[in-house]
Design brief:
The chain is an alpha/beta fold. Helix content is 29%, strand content 29%.
């Protein structure tokens, strides 16, 4: 899989002002750092963020995890963009928050370039399609055939309108012959997985299922999220 096909996950902070006094930059951090994860708990962003927080604890000390799900990540990104530019509010940003969502918003609440200072990119993840086991399909070809035979009867959950999972779902429908599948946005993939089995038995879910954490975490860590 090409890197361009993956969700890129990295750390960003509110743009640091050049006018900050030098003394304020000598020791860091002096208090707990807030890591804003722009998704609901238990999703891939949340797990990656918590793994990172544990790995850097010897250097950073306490890191407060602040889950801000919704708006395909834009709520959390906007929070950090308008936080004091002192390095104590860090965003676990991604392709969704900084490439996909802002251009499709009529009035983006933040500038993905000017409002942030990039720290590093340290994780990549890919996506997969999972379905409720009650759906009579076992392969991708069977899912496509079923969708064609039942137009409008299937729905596709994503992590929010404009998110990479939403775009992946729409692209899948286009490549498969313009399938009539209803898009259903959630505040995160895990929210969709919790809701779909009980209330939407005919819902497929475009889900981020694999992440490789590197650079700031020693070695390569693979975090599988494939649900049986």
């Amino acid at each position: 899989m090409k890197p361009s096909d993956m969700l890129v996950i990295g750390l960003l902070a509110a743009a640091v002002s050049a006018a900050m006094p030098a003394a304020a930059q000598e020791r860091y951090p002096l208090r707990p750092v807030r890591l804003v994860i722009p998704s609901v708990p238990a999703g891939v962003h949340d797990v990656i963020g918590r793994v990172w927080a544990e790995r850097v604890k010897p250097h950073f000390g306490a890191i407060v995890i602040d889950n801000r799900g919704g708006g395909a990540g834009s709520i959390g990104a906007n929070d950090v963009a308008h936080s004091p530019p002192d390095g104590y509010s860090i965003l676990l940003g991604s392709t969704t928050t900084h490439v996909l969502v802002p251009p499709v918003m009529a009035n983006p609440p933040y500038d993905p370039v000017k409002d942030f200072s990039a720290v590093t990119v340290f994780a990549y993840s890919s996506t997969s399609i999972v379905v409720n086991p009650s759906l009579p399909v076992r392969t991708l070809a069977e899912l496509i055939a079923y969708a064609k035979a039942n137009p409008g009867k299937l729905s596709c959950g994503s992590a929010g309108t404009g998110s990479i999972t939403h775009i992946a779902g729409e692209y899948f429908k286009q490549l498969s012959g313009s399938l009539e599948i209803v898009a259903v946005p959630y505040k995160g993939c895990m929210a969709g997985m919790a809701f779909a089995p009980k209330y939407q038995p005919r819902q497929a879910l475009i889900k981020i299922v694999l992440a490789r954490v590197s650079r700031l975490c020693p070695g390569e860590m693979v975090l599988p999220f494939v649900t049986a």
